[in-house]
Amino acid sequence: YDLTQPPSVPVSPGQTASITCSGENLGNKDVSWYQQKSGQSPVLVIFQDNVRPSGVSERFSGSNSGNTATLTISGTQTMDEADYYCQVWDTSAVVFGGGTKLTVL
Amino acid sequence: QVQLVESGGGLVKPGESLRLSCAASGLTFSDYYMSWIRQAPGKGLEWLSYISGSGSTIYYADSLEGRFTISRDNSNNSLYLHMSSLSVDDTAIYYCATDYGASYFFDNWGQGTLVTVSS
Predict the structure, then answer these.
(1) Tens digits of per-residue pLDDT, A8-26?
(2) CB contacts, 8 Å: A41 with chain B
């Protein structure tokens, strides 16, 4: 099973960033999203398509329908600049997307 | 809070073996599925293996071709990854991560341990 993400997404400070993750019938699976800042370990920011773990900013939200899941970051801040990975469980295996570098210009 | 500390990484030669450890604290370890995930330099995340809380259920990525073995010691709150027949392609940071309740997402990650395979 393959998950496809755009390699990079630019966004201006204060604007909304949308990072997509595409896969066959992805809407039938639970999608999680991770943020990884430079030199740090990944951090879970969304699970089960649209649930935020405790401590994650309300500016992060998720959706999943059809073949595409989307991580949305509203009011993007410079601190949000990071790599973002989507992830699912499929047929006894974990699958990660290739990652998207969010650049806050 | 949950803390995961990986160890055992280092420089090894192609063909050699290595065992990684992950020490967990701040949780009831046996309640958690655990995974190993790696990240090659400048690359994305690659899942390697999953083990249930009791150790009775184990999954591996097909790409490993049987070279890696995951195990756990709940009495010592520890997770292990034994790696054999290492190649330069196994050079990566290796992370352990928790999954509470077999939800198949990872809510806590360690800081990682670097494995370098080079002659």
Answers:
(1) 999 999 999 999 999 999 9
(2) 95, 109-112
Closest CA to A6 of A15, A18, A31: A18
DSSP B68-86: EEEEEEGGGTEEEEEE-S-
**Contact (CB, 8 A) for B77 and B89:** no
Q: Which H or E run includes A87?
A: strand A82-90
Residue B25 token pair: 């604290």
pLDDT digits (tens, 9 = 90+) for A45-55: 999 999 999 99
Q: Which of B45, B93, B95, B99 to mutate to test the interface with A (most CBs of A within 10 A)?
A: B45
- CA distance to A57, A86, B79, B105, per residue, from A22 (Å): 24, 9, 33, 18
Share of chain B above pLDDT 90, in %: 95
Please tell me the distance from the alpha carbon of residue A69 to that of residue A62, in angstroms, as a whole number.
Answer: 7
Bridge partners, A10 (sequence order): A103
